[in-house]
Write a structure and sequence with these properties.
Layout lengths: L17 H4 L6 E5 L2 H10 L1 H6 L5 H22 L3 H5 L6 E7 L7 E8 L4 H17 L3 E7 L2 E7 L17 E6 L2 E5 L2 H9 L13 H10 L6 E6 H13 L3 H13 L7 E10 L2 E10 L6 H5 L19 E6 L2 H15 L3 H7 L12 H6 L2 E11 L8 E9 L2 H15 L4 E5 L2 E6 L13 H5 L4 E6 L2 E5 L2 H8 L10 H7 L8 E5 L1 H14 L1 H16 L19 H5 L5 E8 L2 E9 L5
Antiparallel strand pairs: 1-2, 1-8, 2-3, 3-7, 4-5, 5-6, 6-7, 8-9, 9-10, 10-20, 11-12, 11-18, 12-13, 13-17, 14-15, 15-16, 16-17, 18-19, 19-20
Helix pairs in contact: 9-10
């Protein structure tokens, strides 16, 4: 067991959390707080219950049989099956990307894994893997490090082809301290992590303000998994990489990032929890962008308000999404941004938007942004019977001045030289636009047509601009007597989980979407579409289509009713505050009242 570090290997002490071991220069981090607890949470969740349902036995056995050869090969080479390998980690498991002062390898990947009582087995697996790689031509060196051993496995150079420099792949480096294993693509990085196995007194990832704020906002301490991306450090790496191409190029990229306001987005991170409280699953994602924001970030000003489904939204929708958007602020931000690159750019564009007979040009602020409201909504449902092309979608944009925007719409149609079909329905004028289907080279015949259904229909009614690719849904909304989603019992169950004021919310009934996916897999249409897409991509690249193993046997799938038992209502909500933007998504437990 050469990977164990002397006396520390036998000590029973709690490993330091990976965020206290990793340096404050870490760019990306993903962590499972406790692998054993995550496995148990999955088993108890509806996903785990579905997988272990007796009706799934034929499907499970088929998947296991397909993986048997790979698992047996793994057992022969490193001494454990695939299942046993996945069960080795017992505590925290983290994957990170750490910058290096090396132009050939500017980013090192690192894994910090606590094997707990499986430390000896983990060492055996790594020892045998090292010997397998050595037998395949890798150069293996071992050096003493902190009373243990540091293993460096250097794969052979890859032939880049005639006229090109051969590329040396990064090494695989590993060692351990106690039951914690450190694996990475840089010897210096692994030494640094192992040297701080008990945590850093200063300069750790945990001490970074953006990381700490993200952990607090997303409730990382209570979640089973979390992740973090330091965007400010990513931008620094981009600037550094561009600077190698010349000082002027580096300065130009940095200027563009600052002018667009992208540097205002400091980081993004999130969490996942299964089988927690009222939730079968819950995810949180936080974008750290402290106010005041500028540039592109200011365009997307999403104030938290009291949102409730509009009265025109039918109770039977499969999904409902809505968010508030301060479009007046958005216009100001767009205008300010445009002026940074060319003073009066929007005014110049407006002068080109005069009708064929001349006259007053279209004003972005007065004619477009002015009449618009501050809310955008998207709904979808499925025509019965549910088939591949049965989904209906409709976009609704709130209007503050319907009459003014009706005039704007007429002028836009005139400027575009469009000639939609106009018809009256329930006292509302519907515009039907025939949209030509693009002919994309290399696209399988019929694939685009299946995804694009015309005509596109527009209408202004109920203080809303409606846009849809299925006019039957629009007509349903325009008819009187629509039973609203807001009064629906299922929506009200989800609404109990929503704060009083939000920037956006969604409501999802998963059964119809799941039914569509199930039918596509069961009929073979999913596999056919996947193969067609891969063949098209290969054709455009001038390559032969790759072989795609058949993982799922449709004949082994149980009836859809088995899956339906485990499908529950879900939704999400987002809230914008002075620190940034927090989005929370969830599915409810089956027994949620």
């Amino acid at each position: 067991m050469s990977g164990l570090s002397g006396p520390a290997a036998g000590e029973a002490r709690a490993a330091a959390p990976p965020e206290q071991v990793l340096p404050d220069s870490t760019v990306f981090y993903a962590k499972v707080n406790d692998v054993t607890k995550l496995r148990e949470a999955f088993r108890q969740s509806q996903y785990g219950q579905l997988w272990n349902d007796p009706a799934m036995s034929a499907f499970r056995d088929d998947i296991k049989e397909k993986l048997k050869n790979a698992s047996d090969t793994l057992k022969e080479k490193i001494g454990v099956t695939l299942k046993e390998l996945l069960e080795i980690p017992q505590g925290a498991l983290a994957i990170a990307a750490v910058p290096q002062d090396d132009p050939k390898l500017p980013i090192a990947l690192a894994i910090v894994a606590d094997a707990g009582q499986n430390a000896a087995r983990m060492t055996e697996v790594l020892d045998r893997s090292t010997k397998q790689l050595e037998g395949a031509g890798a150069k293996v060196t071992t050096e003493a490090f902190q009373g243990g051993s540091l293993h460096v496995v250097q794969p052979p150079q890859k032939d880049a082809g005639e006229g090109k420099n051969d590329r040396t792949p990064p090494p695989l480096v590993w060692t351990s301290v106690g039951s914690t294993f450190f694996i990475g693509s840089s010897a210096n990085a692994v030494k640094d992590l192992a040297g701080h196995a008990e945590g850093r007194s200063t300069g750790s990832l945990a001490s970074v303000d953006s990381f700490a704020k993200t952990q607090a906002k997303t409730g990382a301490a209570e979640a089973q998994a979390s992740w973090f991306l330091d965007i400010s450090k990513v931008l620094q790496l981009v600037n550094k990489a561009n600077a190698r191409g010349g000082e002027a190029q580096g300065q130009q990229v940095e200027f563009l990032i600052n002018e667009l306001g992208i540097n205002g987005l400091k980081s993004v991170g999130g969490t996942l929890a299964l089988n927690s409280g009222n939730y079968n699953s819950i995810t949180k994602t936080f974008f750290l962008a402290p106010k005041p924001t500028q540039g592109l970030l200011k365009v997307f000003t999403l104030p938290a308000v009291s949102l409730r489904p509009e009265s025109w939204v039918p109770a039977g929708v499969a999904s409902y999404q809505t968010f508030s958007w301060d479009l007046d602020t958005a216009y100001t931000a767009i205008n300010d941004l445009a002026n940074k690159f060319q003073q009066g750019m929007l005014s110049v564009l407006e002068q080109q938007l005069a009708g064929p007979e001349g006259g007053q040009p279209l004003s972005f602020q007065k004619d477009i942004f002015g009449p618009l409201g501050d809310r955008i909504t998207l709904i979808s449902d499925f025509k019965k019977p549910i088939k591949e092309d049965s989904q209906r979608m409709l976009l609704g944009i709130a209007l503050e001045d319907s009459k003014a925007f009706a005039g704007t719409l007429s002028r836009v149609i005139e400027l575009a030289g469009a000639s939609p079909k106009k018809r009256d329905f329930q006292g509302t004028t519907i515009y039907d636009f025939d949209i030509p289907v693009p002919n994309i080279p290399g696209q399988p015949e019929g694939q685009v047509q299946a995804g694009v259904k015309g005509p596109v229909s527009l209408a202004i009614a109920k203080e809303t601009l409606f846009v849809t690719t299925d006019t039957t849904l629009l007509e349903q909304i325009l008819r009187p007597g629509v039973v609203p989603l807001a009064d629906n019992e299922q929506y009200q169950i989800v609404a109990k989980e929503l704060p009083a004021k939000v920037s956006g919310l969604t409501f999802v009934r998963p059964d119809e979407q799941a039914r569509l996916s199930y039918d596509m897999i069961k009929s073979g249409q999913f596999e056919k579409a996947l193969r067609a897409g891969m063949a098209a991509s290969a054709s455009r690249a001038g390559q032969a289509p790759p072989e795609l193993p058949k993982i799922i046997d449709p004949d082994k799938l149980p009836d859809f009713s088995v899956f339906a038992k485990y499908l529950t209502l879900g939704g999400s909500y987002s809230v914008s505050d002075d620190d940034g933007f927090l989005s929370t998504g969830f599915t409810l437990r089956r027994n949620n009242p």
